[in-house]
Amino acid sequence: MNNSIKFPALIFTLILFLVSCNSKVEGLKPVQLTTESVFITGKILNPTPENNTITVYENDILSGDQKSQSSLVDSSGDFQMKLNLYNSKDVLVKYVNNSFPLIVHPNDSIHIVFDADKMSDKDKLAKTIQFSGSAAVENSKLIAFHSEISKISIPLQQYRQYEKEKYPTDFIAIPDSLRTARKEVANEFIQQGISNELKEWIKNDVDFEYYNWLARYPQNHARFNELDKDTVVPSSFYDFMNIEVSHEYLHNSKFVDFISRYRFGRINAFSKKYSTSSFIGYLLEGKDNTYFGSSTAQEIEVINDITKDKFLKEILIARCLFDCLDRREIAEFEKQYSLFNKIVHQPFLREPLINKYLETRKYFECPQQNENTLLKSARNTPAEQLISKITQEHQGKIIYMDIWATWCSPCRKEMPNSKKLMNEINSDKVDFVYLCTDSNEDRWKALISELEIEGSHYLATPDQSRFIYELFEMSGVPQYILFDQQGNIVDKGSRLRPGESLIKTKIENLLKQQKQGITAQKS
């Protein structure tokens, strides 16, 4: 395209962007979720006394997260739990380190009896597990199928080696052969006589396992070989993902994984590398690599351009808007609300999104901080002096610094662990410091209020953020830094997550050393 055509197009894009800037959505009220209950009860034979919980995992189509619900196992091995579902799906039941799948439907009441000693052997489990109540026959046959299909696999280490060493045309032969072998097992099992629902579930399970194998290859090959993932395969590699989607696919957890692979594989392959809402910045940056608008707007545009199936498009747009809210980009969701209203109709997508928007907006409108939460100003501090300023303000204390960002999902997910660690340490000699980078101030305050994070909070400016990345040689967040009482760095890195036992041990060792030092001085 020549410049005489491109410039008017840019002006038109700018006008559209300005027109789309809506105020907050008015008149919305919280929605009562139209889910139905599922009751799962059971008895574990030969339970281990030290392992008194059983957990059910389900893949959520809207967020893409694996949600879990646990139940206590009493001394007799009995347990019970309740799930709330929009539609039938498979879930994973896990006890200690072993697990098995289960198909559940809204309003089901399922009772399971299994032997903990036989869980590690899938054949023994299939022969001994007992179901009663809803879908008993179906689940008995599902466990039998799970036992058979699990035998058709490649050891993970060997498979990773194939992903690393083989080029795309050679690699494809690997999942192709696996799919063929798994189809043969599936067809033989189906011929034994099973329900239509289980028959469709098995076929979809084999297909989506295959699609996910292929979709993971470019990213893994790039990671193992330290390459740019965008250069491993052309965008046409992902054409196999542009499928027609049936509502029956929702029953299979591998379809939820497929949606994630579609976004981070196919959509990413058709997207520009950068997004900017600054028109001047767009003109100054390389326009071939930069999209004028938000990352959410770009993703929605790509979804509309490359996705032919209407239902798949609805799921993808809903997932994109969920992530927009998960990053606390309230204004961006409000810009896209008319599209949401037009496109997203399925209750299992629409209802949770409306509630998430209203809940998130509440913390923006009236953020309230805990009395033990301190918001510290560092705006006028030169970038190279920020860390020394923080250590000086906490002089004489052990400092556990959490470097995070409001848009970082792993950062936010670790915050409850940070609160737990703070309570376990429970020492006035340890200060928990949260340094937020590359983030909007309103989102920063709203998230601190929402997550109820105590401690000292600093918001880094863009210049300070860049300096922090360079200083600590960071490639991303979250990152964690442990300082001793003199302000010296003891350790740093993402492995010091508050959810890991390592950091608690290190802090306790520093406290012990400090106590020993005081005792020595007194003597």
From TrEMBL:
| GO biological process entries | cytochrome complex assembly
Name the major location. other
List residues of the Thioredoxin domain. Answer: 375-512
Q: Could you state a single Gene Ontology molecular function term?
A: isomerase activity
Tell me yes or no: is Isomerase among this UniProt entry's keywords. yes
Q: What is the annotated signal peptide range for this record?
A: none
Question: What Pfam families does this protein map onto?
Answer: Thioredoxin_8
What name does the UniProt record give this protein? Thiol-disulfide isomerase or thioredoxin
The record ties this protein, via InterPro entries, to: Thioredoxin-like_fold, Thioredoxin-like_sf, Thioredoxin_domain, Thioredoxin_ResA/DsbE_sf
Listed GO CC annotations: cell envelope
Keywords of the record? Cytochrome c-type biogenesis, Disulfide bond, Isomerase, Redox-active center
Where is this protein localized, as stated in its record? Cell envelope
